[in-house]
Amino acid sequence: MPCLFLSSLTLSHFRSHKRAVMEIDARPVAIFGPNGAGKTNIIEAVSLLSPGRGLRRSSAQDMARRPEALGWKITALLHSLHQVHEIEITSEQGAARQVRIDGKPAPQTALGRVARVLWLIPAMDRLWIEGAEGRRRFLDRMTLSFLPDHAELSLLYEKAMRERNRLLKDMVREPAWYTALEGQMAEAGAAIHANRLTALKSISDAQTQAQTVFPAATLELLCEMPSDADGLRGALADNRMRDLAAGRTLIGPHRADLFGVYAAKDVPARDCSTGEQKALLVSLILANARALAADFGAPPLLLLDEVAAHLDADRQAALYDEISALGAQAWMTGTGPEMFAALGDRAQRFEVTDTTGESQVTQVG
Q1: pLDDT at residue 298, rounded to an integer
Q2: 231 domain residue, yes or no
Q3: CB 3.0-4.6 Å disulfide test: which of 82, 97, 192, 293 passes with 253?
Q4: 3-state class of 34 per DSSP?
């Protein structure tokens, strides 16, 4: 199977890294070091090789190394489906990120056409018990991994909705002001809804076909809206008075939620134990990766921050076995090298230290 992997990564003035250069191969990457040394900063940089704001959802200004705040730069050599792309992402003194692919300026959405990146970070551990916004974001990351144009649809929908909400807050009642905006929202919103359903079907199929020790999740998209563009356009028009009273749009894909069930126990994910919820998330990330391997033609880059710390020894070993069988370049972090012992020579290892306020990255195996 063709591979998707990074063979080099260079960080300049990014977070705690004044300069870091990593030369790597297609194997998983195990990154270890004490808390606060700068491990997560490395995989955050890799997450920026996909559309969106990265795994921390930070602003470009927040990613600049302090106290200099000179701006930052990420350069990566990406091997994708028998092609090699040089990707450069920069931000000068807090300015918006700029992307170059093979030396040419490109929109962020173009990154989704050359790379696929999935991540699981500790902040997602409460996914099933907190608000719907985080679950929508999780669903849209899965959807984007299959359908790169999903990012552009989301931007179009959100822009039109912001304009509509502005009219609502200003108590504008003239229908002519709403018609065009609602048309844009309906076309994009129906496509967003259809894309999400397509992604959930792919994840479900991948779970059914997988041999894994991790529990399967039954996923359902909860969204009270017409699924076709004409129906959504009519619903938005019919709902204007209610929306005027609320000062915002109350119907559409931005109100959707993702409902998960631990399939073997028929227990809602929100009611499962902390360990079971974590295992379900790992299972979904692996299922997403398997589905992408078939759909895109190569498994995605996997970013797994402190994932082994929440798994027992057997599940740690099982996770590493499944990653290796998949052939994915997984970037994993942990506090010590012992957390990756079960990987043996199937992984390359880097130690991250910070004794002077500047992260240092050293390859150790």
Answers
A1: 92
A2: yes
A3: 192
A4: coil
Would you put residue 357 in left (φ > 0), alpha (ψ -120 to 50) or beta? Answer: left
Task: At 152, list the tokens.
Answer: 């552009």
For residue 84, what are the contacts with CB-CB under 8 A and spacing of at least 6?
A: 77, 78
260 and 313: one domain? no
If you count them, how many residues does the chain have? 365
Residue 195 sits in the same domain as residue 219: yes
**Tokens encoding 330:** 């997984």
Cα(353)–Cα(37) distance, integer angstroms: 5
The answer, yes or no, to whether residue 321 has pLDDT greater than 70, is yes
The residue behind tokens 């079907």 is 201
- pLDDT for the residue 2: 63
What are the contacts of 238-241 at 24+ separation with CB within 8 A? 240/168, 240/175, 240/178
Q: What are the two backbone dihedrals, phi and then psi, of residue 228, each rounded to the nearest 5 degrees?
A: -105, 160
Q: Which helix (H) or strand (E) holds 198?
A: helix 176-209
Mode of pairing for the β-strands spanning 330-334 and 29-32: parallel
Interval 203-222 mean pLDDT: 93
Instruction: Please give the single-letter amino acid code of residue 105.
Output: P
- Cβ neighbors of 288 (< 8 A, separation 6 or more) are 118, 142, 145, 203, 206, 300
The first and second tokens of residue 113, run together, are 């056409």
pLDDT (tens digit, 9 = 90+) per residue, 161-199?
Answer: 999 999 999 999 999 999 999 999 999 999 999 999 999
CB count in 10 Å sphere of residue 206: 22
Element holding 267 (H helix, E strand): strand 267-268
Q: How confident is the model at residue 82 (pLDDT cuts 50, 70, 90)?
A: confident
For residue range 86-145, list pLDDT tens digits in order: 999 999 987 889 999 999 999 998 999 899 999 999 999 999 999 999 999 999 999 999
Q: State which residues form the domain around 84.
A: 1-116+297-365
- Look up residue 277 and give its two tokens: 């919820």
Query: How many domains is the chain partitioned into structurally?
Result: 2
Is the domain of 186 the same as that of 256?
yes
pLDDT in the model for residue 309: 77
Residue 26: pLDDT band with limits 50, 70, 90: very high
**Neighbouring C-alpha atoms within 13 Å toward the C-beta of 262:** 20
Task: Name 286's Cβ contacts closer than 8 Å, sequence gap at least 6.
Answer: 210, 212, 214, 319, 322, 323, 326
Share of the chain above pLDDT 90, in %: 88
